[in-house]
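fyi for ur records
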Amino acid sequence: MAAYGLKIMEVKKPLDAFLPTLHMSSSFVFARENDFFAYPNNYNYYVNHYRNTFQHGGISLEEMCCPLITLSPKV
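which gave:
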């Protein structure tokens, strides 16, 4: 789906994408590739601020996995 040339992904059923459901009508919209959403009240500021940056919306698996080891004393 594209709106004004923006490549977006819409998730209408959050549970199918393992996303939280706050209301019965909850849905999510994500910008794809090099696109991003900008606030209309100060559009130029946000476009200049976020252009050529990497943004993500959460914690990756690598950031969540912690190695764990159980040690036993030698007898």
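The helical segments are 43-50, 61-64. thats all i got for now
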